[in-house]
UniProtKB/TrEMBL annotation:
<keyword id="KW-0143">Chaperone</keyword>
<dbReference type="GO" id="GO:0030288">
    <property type="term" value="C:outer membrane-bounded periplasmic space"/>
</dbReference>
<protein>
    <submittedName>
        <fullName>Fimbria/pilus periplasmic chaperone</fullName>
    </submittedName>
</protein>
<dbReference type="InterPro" id="IPR001829">
    <property type="entry name" value="Pili_assmbl_chaperone_bac"/>
</dbReference>
<dbReference type="InterPro" id="IPR013783">
    <property type="entry name" value="Ig-like_fold"/>
</dbReference>
<feature type="signal peptide">
    <location>
        <begin position="1"/>
        <end position="24"/>
    </location>
</feature>
<dbReference type="InterPro" id="IPR008962">
    <property type="entry name" value="PapD-like_sf"/>
</dbReference>
<keyword id="KW-0393">Immunoglobulin domain</keyword>
<dbReference type="InterPro" id="IPR018046">
    <property type="entry name" value="Pili_assmbl_chaperone_CS"/>
</dbReference>
<feature type="domain" description="Pili assembly chaperone N-terminal">
    <location>
        <begin position="26"/>
        <end position="147"/>
    </location>
</feature>
<dbReference type="InterPro" id="IPR036316">
    <property type="entry name" value="Pili_assmbl_chap_C_dom_sf"/>
</dbReference>
<feature type="domain" description="Pili assembly chaperone C-terminal">
    <location>
        <begin position="173"/>
        <end position="237"/>
    </location>
</feature>
<comment type="similarity">
    <text>Belongs to the periplasmic pilus chaperone family.</text>
</comment>
<keyword id="KW-1029">Fimbrium biogenesis</keyword>
<dbReference type="GO" id="GO:0071555">
    <property type="term" value="P:cell wall organization"/>
</dbReference>
<keyword id="KW-0732">Signal</keyword>
<keyword id="KW-0574">Periplasm</keyword>
Length: 246
């Protein structure tokens, strides 16, 4: 198929990915990929649960959801990059690391695996038919050799405190570890009984982030605890609770 055809499908999938709550027939086995540097390759299992064959294109990008497959400059090869999967059948995607300069050796790096599911054209063509492609994106965590600690240690040893922000107060979190931490929920529970839901995002290794607090007045010097759910290597949530630092 031509590059123009795939660019058009990619454009359609980007719109669908961002705006519709529909599901593809091709199901991905897992919600994230962990790639230890010692492995020659890792695999991701795909299963076609639909009633029709599916054509799948896969590629990895460095974090731009609007980037095209041909524009991705990443140290990975996906094999096969394009494959047909029959109904009820499965296919393993193999990811192989190809070393290149600039990849940190002292911390984990994150990339994104894109899986584009293209359904077949109907057997009877109509003038009003629209063909939609479905795209899934999974985080790919690349782990260099001999990183200190573990992903579990990193998630359990975060440091939390309240800080002033441009809009009032924020919950600041510091990650001293070499691994990313992905949150499911974050809740600030104060000693006086008040609680605040926190808008969180993925926390990079050896970094600090400020999470905004809504309607949080009079929190300066407040005491309390942070209750958060982080996501482990298998996509499961782990409940953690820690004291708020002064």
């Amino acid at each position: 198929m031509s590059r123009r055809f795939w660019s058009f499908l990619f454009f359609c999938s980007a719109i669908l990915f961002q705006s519709l709550g529909v599901q593809a027939n091709v199901v991905v086995g897992g919600t994230r990929v962990v790639y230890p540097a010692k492995e020659r390759e890792v695999s991701v299992r795909l299963t076609n649960q639909g009633a029709q064959p599916a054509l799948v294109q896969a590629w990895i990008d460095a974090g731009n959801p609007d980037g095209k497959p041909d524009d991705a400059d990443v140290p990975f090869i996906v094999m096969p990059p394009m494959v047909r999967i029959d109904p009820g059948k499965g296919q393993a995607l193999r990811l192989a690391y190809t070393p290149q300069p600039g990849i940190p050796k002292d911390r984990e790096s994150v990339f994104w695996l894109n899986i584009l599911d293209v359904p077949p054209l109907p057997s009877v063509q109509t003038t009003n038919h629209m063909q939609l492609a479905f795209r899934s994106r999974l985080k790919v965590f690349f782990r260099p050799l001999e990183l200190p600690g573990s992903a579990i240690d990193t998630a359990e040893q975060l440091h939390w405190r309240l800080v002033k922000s441009a809009t009032g107060m924020a919950l600041q979190v510091r990650n001293d570890g070499a691994f990313h931490v992905s949150f499911n929920t974050v809740l600030l529970k104060l000693r006086d009984g008040r609680s605040f839901k926190v808008h969180s995002r993925m926390l990079a290794p050896r970094s600090t982030a400020d999470f905004a607090l809504e309607q949080a007045q009079g929190l300066s010097g407040a005491e309390g605890r942070v209750v958060y759910e982080w996501i482990n290597d298998y996509g499961a949530t782990v409940l953690q609770e820690t004291r708020l630092a002064p």
